[in-house]
Amino acid sequence: MSELNMSREITQLRLYVFILITLIKCFQDVHVMIFVGFGFLMTFLKRYSFGAVGFNFLIAAFGLQWALLMQGWFHSLDYTDGKIKIGVENLINADFCVAGCLIAYGAVLGKVSPVQLLVLTLFGITLFAVEEYIILNLIHARDAGGSMVIHMFGAYYGLAISWMLYRPNLDQSSRLQGSVYHSDVFAMIGTLFLWMFWPSFNSAITDHGDGQHRAAINTYLALSSTVLTTVAVSSLFQKHGKLDMVHIQNSTLAGGVAVGTAAEFMLMPYGSLIVGFCCGIISTLGYIYLTPFMEKHLKIQDTCGIHNLHALPGFIGGIVGAITAAAASESVYGTEGLVNTFDFEGEFKDMKPTRQGGHQAAGMCVAICFGIGGGILVGCILRLPIWGDPADDNCFDDEAYWEVPEDEESIPPILQYNNHMRNKDVTESNFTVEQN
Amino acid sequence: MSELNMSREITQLRLYVFILITLIKCFQDVHVMIFVGFGFLMTFLKRYSFGAVGFNFLIAAFGLQWALLMQGWFHSLDYTDGKIKIGVENLINADFCVAGCLIAYGAVLGKVSPVQLLVLTLFGITLFAVEEYIILNLIHARDAGGSMVIHMFGAYYGLAISWMLYRPNLDQSSRLQGSVYHSDVFAMIGTLFLWMFWPSFNSAITDHGDGQHRAAINTYLALSSTVLTTVAVSSLFQKHGKLDMVHIQNSTLAGGVAVGTAAEFMLMPYGSLIVGFCCGIISTLGYIYLTPFMEKHLKIQDTCGIHNLHALPGFIGGIVGAITAAAASESVYGTEGLVNTFDFEGEFKDMKPTRQGGHQAAGMCVAICFGIGGGILVGCILRLPIWGDPADDNCFDDEAYWEVPEDEESIPPILQYNNHMRNKDVTESNFTVEQN
Amino acid sequence: MSELNMSREITQLRLYVFILITLIKCFQDVHVMIFVGFGFLMTFLKRYSFGAVGFNFLIAAFGLQWALLMQGWFHSLDYTDGKIKIGVENLINADFCVAGCLIAYGAVLGKVSPVQLLVLTLFGITLFAVEEYIILNLIHARDAGGSMVIHMFGAYYGLAISWMLYRPNLDQSSRLQGSVYHSDVFAMIGTLFLWMFWPSFNSAITDHGDGQHRAAINTYLALSSTVLTTVAVSSLFQKHGKLDMVHIQNSTLAGGVAVGTAAEFMLMPYGSLIVGFCCGIISTLGYIYLTPFMEKHLKIQDTCGIHNLHALPGFIGGIVGAITAAAASESVYGTEGLVNTFDFEGEFKDMKPTRQGGHQAAGMCVAICFGIGGGILVGCILRLPIWGDPADDNCFDDEAYWEVPEDEESIPPILQYNNHMRNKDVTESNFTVEQN
């Protein structure tokens, strides 16, 4: 081995180490986001915490296995021995697949049975794998943090399913569709773990040292500024200037979604801050005005408000990504940097940044189409009268699927499960006074 | 230095880095499991959350120091200067020692005083150190994730103590021996942190890159499949098909225990999935049928059901490990791989995999003997009338050892502490109705 | 490149890797401490959990950005292009800046408005940056874990503000200034995450492999022994020998504060254990005797008892650091070790350890002066009648600034905001009986 080779080898080792570290670290961080972050974020409902954290656990564990299989089959042609290889990259990718389905779960939280959730996940993972392949490989869009691939797809998938499963008699002011004091604190556990580890999420699959570093710091900055505008807008638009926990729990994360695509690009710190700033405003206003509007006029009942946390910021993220890509130039990235960042290699060797911007936009369209189309399809399946979904009166109630401890203010066990979506007359004598 | 040496050094550095990363990462993960995982897993009781998380904290902090000292003394002969060296491996080992005692705490949760817990820990760590030395060094069994060394030992140790401290008048349907809604959600924090970081636990002390990778992925897969079967069995065997939080909190972790020994071997992904699959079933059925049986007929009161989460899966893990070891061959592992994986070096240079299987089985027997024997011994000591354990009526009640805030549904302060195990007549006028 | 160079390069790479790992790992750990640790530690109040975790989130997100800017301006002279560079070291430093302000928040928890908190943070970060520069660069004191720079400064800053904002009519036995059962369990989440990750906090900015290792292990040992003495003292000094959750939540962390300065020095394991041992006693006794004394006689209302968790242990830490530094010698550290550990380079090339001890002590004085002086200054500003701080009757009540879910034992909405510090007559008809 010559000295030159040796020296090169050391440089490579340096890079290898950096990637290894971040892969291992990012994997664990993303894993925490999936199980603790998403799980606890949804515990805010007063009597659906078991369902939130428990079914989240179920979906994630099921989805991981299915995603590993799907990935294996997709890439099985690469190997000659017909075996599926599993490494830490596959585990991260599986977590990403699952994230899309968990986002969708947010829209139908409390209104579906665990069996329906498994069906939602089964199809969701499959659709995700195809959609991801089209966007990243065929269209050659870049999407490190999955603004389009994960967030937009997941959100529209969930919203379309929610639209298909519309429950006209689900009283909007249902006694169970709110939080209690401690359930809101539990939800903050989810918020904080998502918030803290989001930089790892957005930088996990960018495989070059520089891009990874950039992705983490851009995300960090965007998230910081989102918190401030969320608090400001929440206070300004609520009566008496009080803050609303729903906004703090959700909108503070919108910045992370919105820099997902552009995080690995040269978005620059001030760019990240501006994106986060805008997203905090838009997401919070979405919770105040858009969610009630969608429920009333569009027949979309969005329990967790994923439209404001994932769909809208994902949309912004896609646009920001397209613009940042189109504006890229060799003077900023350097020749090698440009090729590395946008992967202008092989078939796409002669790609220009401006065209890349167009491809990014095309990726967004694919994500929306797959989300809405897939959601309507799966919604049709979930309307079949065989899944044991709860009656309107038992929505948002753990009593329907869990053994709930008795000694607290308990809900009378008049449970009804639907055999079809049209709801029969449901007894409404639910408020029997309890004696402690 | 020749070029060959240089090249070798770079390869070594590559390995060194991998080990360093995983040691540091695994240490922190195991640490989180010990303090947050075990601590919160036991908070499910309605009025014993302080004791669960607080005494867990106390035991762990005490145990760590004692374990570091024990390790130092055990290895003090290796050093000439008589000093105890402390490095990150020692800290991981100390966490492992403590894990055994925390498992044992699960069996006696709510029925012992903090002083009894310190005694339990003091002897537990000491027994663990001897037992570990015999199993790993003398018998030369391999046990990366501690299915035998940690889980079986800890569980039988705790169960034997619980048997010695049997309380005949501890009403099985005691008003405090259940959960409330939010205490079950707290317990899920423990479950999830244990579940997510279990791959680090099982791979922490496997010191070769490949084995570590393998251990983490096998554990991950086993845990995933356990979740599915746990949910299925819980739903199938409960009245009305409802899920039981106790199963979700505990049985979902059984797969991690059961692949502990075999995780670093060539168990193969499908092997891990099958082990996890079976363990989910066995552990959940254990909670439904075995725990009540043991309490009624064997006089073993097992508060957390550690028999189903640690003893049974640990037993399965030991068997699976023995079979996997016996089935090992050079064609699968490669010559070097076989030597590295099973450490066929020095005194055990001529060991054959089939014989290794026998040694694994012998290790299991030692773990059981130490657990039961040690538990009976320590149980005798804990029956001495000097430890201030709570009367039957004050079991599962934080009021006995903690200043509890008053404003919630409070428990009347008729506290009695035992001076001996035979309980005197205890006033039972505990149910004074409270007015809020 | 010669072989010697190559060999040196490999050694350097080894060090680089270690630093890289620990920087990335420590950053994430410190980040978790800031958001989850500090946030949940303060949730113990029965009706101020939203404020605790939510305003902690707000302050931290705001402070991070401000701290990044401040750092950039401070170091802008180093760069020729006028741009602010952001790397992972800056993010860690920003977290450290924020930590000081969050400590200060502990003293005024529940008694100030979010706007006041933002002002507190704005000035706190600025003062911190100047104070840190003086202590570390001009005085050349060493303070890896920030016993002086972070903890003493933050604590005295908060206490001075609390003294300026003294509320004479804040009834000491206010119905809201206590915990409920589950709020205490939430606070334990904060305690445990702080406790587990404290070794990373103290070792994050020590940039040499050895010192970092040493800092982590010393902190680990000190924390372990603190837990034991805290439990012992809490039990001994309370009526009926019961443990107090306040001590377990707070005093168990005092050891980490107290070894902050000396952690990277050759404190030796037994030294750490002794420091932790003493701090557990002093901190717990502080909660029992000192906090009531200060509230009664010194007009300092310290909601979280930061005097006992940060000021006192920080003071001890400063002293221990000065003594350990003064006692340093080449025979223990080695010539190179001494220079590396104490950074005896450049302007301070001829520094002697004994003199370094004096500089350490000088650093303490600067920290106290900045804390108290800055606190009085900012306290004056916060007394201006424009910040919308809550009336005495609405202190410790989320109702003042948050939309609180209604269905729990609710507090009547007679809210008053102060326009000046002198409180007008406040209606006290607060105890309307609720019917569930």
Give an overview of the whole structure:
Chains A, B, C: It comes from Cynoglossus semilaevis. Chains A, B, C: One of its GO terms (molecular function) is ammonium channel activity. Chains A, B, C: This is Rh family C glycoprotein. Chains A, B, C: Residues 20-401 form the Ammonium transporter AmtB-like domain. Chains A, B, C: One of its GO terms (biological process) is ammonium homeostasis. The structure is a homotrimer of 436-residue chains. By secondary structure, the first copy, chain A, is mostly helical. The first copy, chain A, has a single domain (19-382), classed as Orthogonal Bundle (Ammonium transporter fold). Helices cover 65% and strands 0% of the residues of chain A. Chain A is built from 14 helices and no strands. Chain A has helices at 3-41, 49-74, 88-108, 114-138, 147-164, 181-203, 209-237, 245-250, 254-258, 269-297, 306-326, 330-333, 335-342, 353-382. In chain A, helix 5 packs parallel to helix 14. The longest helix of chain A has 39 residues, at 3-41. The radius of gyration of chain A is 22 Å and the shape is globular. Chain A starts with a helix and ends in a 54-residue tail after the last helix. Mean pLDDT of chain A is 84; it is low at 408-414 and 419-436.
Explain briefly what this protein structure is.
Chain A is built from 14 helices and no strands. With 436 residues, chain A is mainly α.
Major sheet details of chain A: none
DSSP E strands of chain A, number = 0
Can you tell me the CATH topology of chain A? Ammonium transporter fold
CATH architecture descriptor text of chain A = Orthogonal Bundle
Average pLDDT number of chain A: 84
Counted by DSSP, the helix tally of chain A is 14
Largest interface: A-B, 48 and 51 residues
> What gyration radius of chain A follows from the Cα positions, in whole Å?
22 Å
CATH superfamily of chain A: Ammonium transporter AmtB like domains
Q: What is the percent of helical residues of chain A? A: 55-70%
